[in-house]
User: Fold this.
Amino acid sequence: MADEKKGVFFTCFGQLEDPRMNRRKRHLLMDIIGITVCAVIAGADGWVGVASFGKSKETWLRTFLELPNGIPSHDTFGRVFSLIAPEAFQDCFRSWVQAVQNGVQGIVAVDGKTVRRSHDRSNGKKAIHIVSAWATENYLALGQVKVDDKSNEITAIPELLRMLELKGCLVTIDAMGCQRRIAQTIVDAGADYLLAVKGNQETLAEDVQQEFKHAQGDDFAHMDHQYLETIEKGHGRIEKRQYWLTHDIEGLGTFERWPSLHAMAMCRATRTVNDETSVEDRYFITSATHNDVKKIATGIRNHWGIENSLHWVLDVAFQEDQSRIRVGYAAENMAAIRKMAINVLKASTSKKGGIKNKRLQAAWNDDYLKELLMAM
Assistant:
C-alpha cells in the first residue's frame, strides 16, 4: 500500500483511544481495526470470519501491519470492538470520509434502519436502530448515529446533521423528520431541506394538501408554479410522475413557523401494472429559493437512493440483518465498518459487478484488495 494512501486511513483512525486501558495488550489497536476493515471488504460478516481471514492472509497483512503477536482470536476482535466508544469511532469515520472525498454536493438523504438481530433478549437489549446520511450523487455514506433506546429518529437526526459538512446540499428526509428543529439545523448548516409532509404535522399537512387541491380545481390558474412530468416504462410497468413546485405559500397558516420555508411541492405517481392503475400523491416543503422544479423532482426521486443503494446493500450483500454481533458497542461499530466498505467498493471501477461480486473478488485477488486499500 502506498505510504501516502496508507497514511489517510491510519492518520484518521490512529487518533482513536485504545479502550483497553487496564488490560495487557498483545495486539495493537490499529492492527485489529486494519484486519477487520480488510476482512469485511473481502466478505467477512462476523468475528470468526474476520479472524479466519486474518490467519489466511497473515503474510500479506504483515506488509503494512505490525502484528507483533500474530493474528488476534475472534474473541479479541469482538471484545475490542465492544469497548470502542462509538462516538469516537464515528469521528474517525467522518474524518476519513472528508479526507478521501473532496466535499459533498447535491442531495444528502437521511433515513433510519434497524439492525434486526442485534438484540440481546437475555440482557434486555433491543435491536439497535441507526440513522444514516447518504450522498446520493457520490454514492457515499457520510455518517451514522444510533437512536437512543428511549428516544426516536427525531432526536438522532439533528445530532447526525450537526456532525456533517452540508453547505450547499439539499437534505431530504421522510415524514418522520418533518420537524421545525430539524429544519433549523439544516438551515444553520448552510443547506436546504426537502421534507416529506404527512400526518405527524397535521395542520401543515392539511394546509399543503388543501392548497394543491384548490389549485388543481382551476388547473393552477391562480397559483404561480413550475411543472415537470416524467414517464418510465419497463417490465410491464408504466409509471408517470407529475411534479408541481410553487413559492406561493402565503395561504399556509403555519408557514411562518417553519425556518426559511420558501416553497412547497407535490408529486403524483401514477403506476400501471397489468392493466391495473394506482395513484399516490405526496407532499413536501422546502427552503430552496430557486424555481428549478427538476432539482426538486430529483431530490424527491433520489431520496430513495438511501434505501436502494445503502440499506438494501447492507442487507443483501453484507447480511446485516442476520448479524448476531451484539455485545457492548460492537454492533454499532461494525455498522460503521460496513459503510466504510461500501464506500470503497462503490468507488471502485476496475472490477465489474455489484458489491457482493466485488467482495468475492477482493477475497480472491490480493492485488484488487490492495487497490481498494490504496483508495483509503
